[in-house]
Predict the 3D structure of the following.
Amino acid sequence: MKRSFTVLLLVILTTLSACSPKSPTATTSSSETNTASQKPSNTPANSNEGGNKQGTVTLNFLERWPNEPYKKYFKDVIDAFEKENPNIKINTIAALNDDYKQKSNVLLNSDNPPDIFFSWVGEWGEKFVREGVAMDITGQVNGDKAWKDQIIESQFTPFTFGGKIYGIPFFMDGKLFYYNTEMFKKYNLKAPKTWSEFIHVLQVLKDNGQTPIYLGNKSPWAAGHYLTTLNQRLVPPDVHKKDYTVGQSQFFRSGLHRSPQEDPGTHPLL
């Protein structure tokens, strides 16, 4: 297991280092990687500053997990990687969620951005591709089929633009619903197993004066996870693609806002 984690980080390091505008590093050898710089840099992150011995490369890694369990995960991976690659040192810069958004925008638009960084999919990540901040790593990803095959193929799609891969998926996210067993017993309900059963449960609860779903939404992105999942499942693929493309989105499309009477395929969720 340790081996696979180390290889994963190695691939990220050797393929994303040129996303920052710096001179070629000791971790890269292909012209594709070395020529991916986009902006001039006054202070290369791979310089031997800070008392590093000659030949040691320092790479800045911007990530958003200063908390557990990911904090320990990344520490273990980096420690293993540095042990196998003693000439490379990883400098971690971590910030959590909203703070990360602000920090990443500032650093990635500076003259000395991080060598490796995390990004969400969608417009947040696409802007870094459009602005030339992210590096094309298609050759490196496809160059190790055994490693690439460990990742679900479809998960590369959100990081692929114009047939080129710009990012490596780190994890898949899932959402759960918890239900009140006493409430279900009171209204003679069973845990739904299908979408139709789920809608039925919501309607029964609503008809009895209950709020069907409660969601802690202090940070608006929490509800967004559910909405985007519903969009993927219920909105036609061609419409969904346009709605998530800058300049083409038309969320207030009449066809998506018909009443259940006009279109039996639509449902009032709450």
